[in-house]
Amino acid sequence: MKALKEAKGAARHLSRAVRQGDPVNLQGALLDVIRARGGYHKVAAASGMSEWRLKLILWDDEECWKLIRLGKLLNGMGLRLAVRPDDKRK
Predict the structure, then answer these.
(1) Whole-structure pTM value
(2) Which residue of 1, 12, 68, 89 lies most exposed, with the fewest beta carbons within 10 A?
(3) Residue pLDDT tens, the chain, 90 long
(4) 26 contacts 61 by C-beta, under 8 angstroms
């Protein structure tokens, strides 16, 4: 859990889930990072969204499938969807 508090560890964890192409894995990885970073309320506030919206993104299969489909589309064009740390933030 400690590694998920840091941007690089969270990015590796989420990128691995995106590459697997399964929304259940992505949902689980997002939940892991959210828990490691203080829970729904804290992450939602830091993201500028409501806690309700964050939970919708996490628990609605269609929302996660949108990301998976985007990754597949990019892969088909020789590109890759990746999660990277924001170098401008701590």
Answers:
(1) 0.80
(2) 89
(3) 789 999 999 999 998 888 887 778 888 999 999 999 999 999 999 999 999 998 888 888 788 788 778 878 888 898 877 788 888 775
(4) no
